[in-house]
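To the wet lab folks,

You asked to see what we're planning to order before we commit. Fair enough. Below is the target structure as tokens, and below that is the sequence we designed to fit it. If anything looks off to you, flag it before the synthesis order goes out.
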């Protein structure tokens, strides 16, 4: 994995602007600690930082290839999982290769098939290709949004990069956030709307979008979305089909020339990936290493809830024994998590999921001491119906995002001068706009109709937020994390599975559970879902309250411009009891909501955000 940056301007001479592209590249050093490179021309500057995973010599970037007298230059962040399939097709077309890297295969795919190459790719990616003779640059992002790509149009310039901080390193771009950005932070956050960079001058290329930049035009289009297909399989056939797709997805993501491990929580999804990976390792005479996370004294304070019915750690150890992995447990203290709220904010360039982010940041830091690549179980819940809002009627049919049911409560903590932002209306507008994009077959069963809507909402919103979190927390530790359940083929297949089959046996992820029979022990297969672990220790609440208290007492704290100080004081004084409604998803309750506000303050301060409110 890597970080990319670029500046395109067909009206200006950029050839002496190497100091600017150097500054942009510098922001990406954690994404790519192994090497850097840049391409300089009159109208196009590309920069690259590399984390070496495949072909150390042959995969250097920016990569240049000359065909028929024309030059093509690429910068690329990602991994293709059908590299060899594409290579064989391109060899038949008469193309030759100088390396075994997926970078050269991707560049050659563009040379051969042009912009339609993106429709052939199976992988995670964000890339830009400069077609010198056509004087155009093509940018693209993977279908599910695993890899990020931000851009800004300033006059005749288009500036892009893997992270927001990369764009802010350019002198044309200022850290301005207007009322729309603040509304998104409070109504949608920690998620962000597709295409939004929150900052006024920054946009994000949405998942499954590509864009073409020429002297006269900037054209952006969606090149893929889940599409309707008639589902003709029986439940038994679906079980076999899903098992084949899943095992193939995991196997394809085990490629690399560097050490690879797996996250293993003891839940269904990470257990399934670890089991397949361990079996492949054994074929090579190797032992897979797995990692789980826990928190000091968490067993003493764990509380059963609808969203977290069981604790993970004992199950992780059972699974590690079952697959014969070399298992390691990372144990975090409460203070570490609170202290890491700062680093997690800088990694994401935005306020995030509080300790859910900071704990992942610390987890990845420990894993990176021994490994460069890890596989993780994200996305299975979105794709196969693992959340309560897929099975709980009151959540299923809510007229808003089911993971943000209490946006109205958020309004209470806003400053009075922001009262006209109408957070519920903002959230509901995005929600309904997304529903209008969902493809449906004619005369669809009402339950399947709603399930298709929930599926689409989840992959376009909830899943992208989790993928953003995973990318930023891991890559800020120079760790590449792959997500087999985000395979485009799995997503397309699942989109058309009828609800009664997808939720086989009336269980969340029922079909996936049946597909894993023979791969996992029964006690793991039928275990009630438990999400990513969080701390339950009261010391965490104490520390968050103390930090929030200090912010409230600091007259210069930028957060005070946005919040109702008296309301937040009440929340602090009651240790979160005055705000019981979940802020977001399953785990962000009172203490995590305060931690989110702490992250907003960090963000406003460290990024010197200029508020236009």
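Sequence we intend to order:
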């Amino acid at each position: 994995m890597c970080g990319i940056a670029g500046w395109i301007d067909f009206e200006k001479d950029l050839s002496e602007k190497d100091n600017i592209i150097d500054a942009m590249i510098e922001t990406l050093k954690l994404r790519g600690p192994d090497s850097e490179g840049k391409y300089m021309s009159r109208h196009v500057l590309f920069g690259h930082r590399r984390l070496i995973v495949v072909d150390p010599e042959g995969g250097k970037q920016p990569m240049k290839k000359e065909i028929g007298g024309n030059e093509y230059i690429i910068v690329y962040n990602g991994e293709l999982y059908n590299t060899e399939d594409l290579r064989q097709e391109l060899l038949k077309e008469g193309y030759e290769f100088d390396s075994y890297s997926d970078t050269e295969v991707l560049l050659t795919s563009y040379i051969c098939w042009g912009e339609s190459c993106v429709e052939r790719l199976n992988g995670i990616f964000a890339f830009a290709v400069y077609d010198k003779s056509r004087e155009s640059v093509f940018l693209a992002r993977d279908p599910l949004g695993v890899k990020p790509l931000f851009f800004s149009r300033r006059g005749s310039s288009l500036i892009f990069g893997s992270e927001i901080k990369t764009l802010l390193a350019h002198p044309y771009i200022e850290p301005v956030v207007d009322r729309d950005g603040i509304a998104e932070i409070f109504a949608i956050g920690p998620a962000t709307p597709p295409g939004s960079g929150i900052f006024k001058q920054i946009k994000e290329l949405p998942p499954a979008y590509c864009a073409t930049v020429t002297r006269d035009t900037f054209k952006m289009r969606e090149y893929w979305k889940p599409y309707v297909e008639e589902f003709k399989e029986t439940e038994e056939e679906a079980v076999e089909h899903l098992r084949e797709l899943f095992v193939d997805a995991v196997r394809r993501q085990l490629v690399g020339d560097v050490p690879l491990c797996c996250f293993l929580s003891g839940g269904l999804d990470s257990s399934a990936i670890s089991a397949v990976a361990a079996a492949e390792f054994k074929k090579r005479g190797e032992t897979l290493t797995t990692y789980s996370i826990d928190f000091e004294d968490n067993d003493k304070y764990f509380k059963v809830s609808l969203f977290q019915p069981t604790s993970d750690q004992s199950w992780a150890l059972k699974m590690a024994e079952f697959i014969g992995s070399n298992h390691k447990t990372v144990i975090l203290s409460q203070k570490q998590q609170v202290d890491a709220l700062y680093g997690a904010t800088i990694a994401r360039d935005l306020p995030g999921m509080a300790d859910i982010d900071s704990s992942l940041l610390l987890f990845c830091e420990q894993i990176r001491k021994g490994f460069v690549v890890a596989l993780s179980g994200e996305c299975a819940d979105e794709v196969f119906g693992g959340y309560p809002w897929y099975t709980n009627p009151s959540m299923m049919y809510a007229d808003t995002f089911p993971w943000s049911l209490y946006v109205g409560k958020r309004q209470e903590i806003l400053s009075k001068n922001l009262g006209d932002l109408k957070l519920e209306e903002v959230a509901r507008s995005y929600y309904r706009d997304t529903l209008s994009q969902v493809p449906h077959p004619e005369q669809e069963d009402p339950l399947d109709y709603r399930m298709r809507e929930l599926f689409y909402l989840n992959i376009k919103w909830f899943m992208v937020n989790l993928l953003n979190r995973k990318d930023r927390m891991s890559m800020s530790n120079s760790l590449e994390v792959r997500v087999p359940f985000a395979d485009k083929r799995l997503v397309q297949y699942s989109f058309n599975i009828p609800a009664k089959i997808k939720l086989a046996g009336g269980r969340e992820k029922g079909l996936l559970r049946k597909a894993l029979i023979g791969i996992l022990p029964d006690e793991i297969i039928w275990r009630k879902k438990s999400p990513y672990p969080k701390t339950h220790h009261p010391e965490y609440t104490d520390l968050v309250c103390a930090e929030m208290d200090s912010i409230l007492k600091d007259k210069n704290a930028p957060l005070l411009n946005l919040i109702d100080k008296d309301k937040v004081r009440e929340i602090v004084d009651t240790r979160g009891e005055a705000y019981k409604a979940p802020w977001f998803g399953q785990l962000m309750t009172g203490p995590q909501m305060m931690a989110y506000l702490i992250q907003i303050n960090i963000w406003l301060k460290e990024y010197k955000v200029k508020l236009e409110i």
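Structural context that might help your review: The longest strand covers residues 70-80. Residues 235-391+462-525 form a domain with the Rossmann fold fold (CATH 3.40.50.620).

Thanks,
Computational group
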